[in-house]
């Protein structure tokens, strides 16, 4: 299954089929029907037991599709970007967080999410599920982050820290990288020289930190509000 | 284990021991040491294999504690609340979301989180883990939500919907219930009559919805910002 990933459940497979992703095969129960635009997509009717064997869920919902992992710009050594908001995930490890960040980016109209190569596999079934259909719309790619920042010195890099400029009152550009660090360790030391703006979400209570996906959501919301 | 719950891992158990929660027992490896203030807490040294049997993790981290579920105000039929921000979770079903909402409430200094009785069990290990230490600080309780709203007509109830007042520009009280609905179905029909203010997080992109914990985080952030 190199270069492929699973998409499970009726709703998600329907979204997949309206996307630009290549779909190799659809394994569906007899009762379910899917309209396939591409003749290269095989549609195979299976029984309950077979579907359960293919699925990663105990109780699969009607269908499992095999799709091809797209290759956006991870192979371009120095991807020059246009202005705009971009999400950068540095060593993000939790699949639920990765999927939720992709979904939130899609809500806020952010088109690109970059992941460091040591981040979680975004085609793992938990990410696919948490991202809902957003994985098929947002361009997600793995990339060498120092190279990305080097090639895009014209774009500010905003990193969230425990102390920094108050996101509610500081000026936020319309264009920027929003850099999200690892759940336990934050932004890696080797990326710190690329961070142009240190921002912080003010704390009013006692929690030591925020969940990475919640913090990312609040930061995206602030950028879009302003 | 009726009325008890497990707290797993070194960091979380240390936070538990500094909280007001009653701790019945601590099962720890020989190499770990915990200072116990209450003589009623049993400290039992176990070996690797025993710890793995007690723990819900495959690779437990040094310690598992058994704590008592506190009883805040779920048994009071009509709990009159003082002004302030309170979180209300209506039929919330995902443990990760529940824990994350408790953690986010703690970050924003919100002291009470109410759950409808059909919500996820907040003492389930996944909630405990996602809440980090915040479960020991924020007062969480299960309660009949219509009763809660009935008894507190002086407090506004803000519900998040796909269409409503733009949270960025609408006036938000310092006092209010922030009502978070079920992940798939939103706020239950029987609670709608109690919602005084319909608010919405503006959408700039294409995602159908936001994750419940992210939406809750953005709303809490907006209340605290203003």
What would the keywords be for this entry?
homodimer, 60s Ribosomal Protein L30, Chain: A, Alpha/beta knot, 2 domains, six-stranded parallel sheet, 10 strands, 24% helix
Characterization of this structure:
- The structure is a homodimer of 226-residue chains.
- Chain A folds into 2 domains: 65 residues, 2-Layer Sandwich (60s Ribosomal Protein L30, Chain: A); 141 residues, SPOUT methyltransferase, trefoil knot domain (Alpha/beta knot), CATH 3.40.1280.10.
- With 226 residues, chain A is α/β, with parallel strands linked by helices.
- In chain A, helix 3 runs parallel beside helix 6.
- Chain A has a 6-stranded parallel beta sheet, with helices on one face. A 4-stranded mixed beta sheet of chain A has the order 1-4-2-3.
- Chain A has 6 helices and 10 strands; from the N terminus they run βαββαββαβαβαβββα.
- The mean pLDDT of chain A is 94.
- Chain A starts with a strand and ends with a helix.
- The longest helix of chain A has 14 residues.
- At the A-B interface, helix 3 and helix 6 of A face helix 3 and helix 6 of B.
Task: Describe the secondary-structure layout.
The structure is a homodimer of 226-residue chains.
Chain A: E1 4-8, H1 10-17, E2 23-29, E3 42-46, H2 48-54, E4 63-68, E5 85-89, H3 95-107, E6 112-115, H4 125-130, E7 139-142, H5 145-151, E8 157-166, E9 176-180, E10 197-200, H6 212-225
Parallel strand pairs in A: 2-3, 5-6, 5-9, 6-7, 8-9, 8-10
Antiparallel strand pairs in A: 1-4, 2-4
Helix pairs in contact in A: 3-6
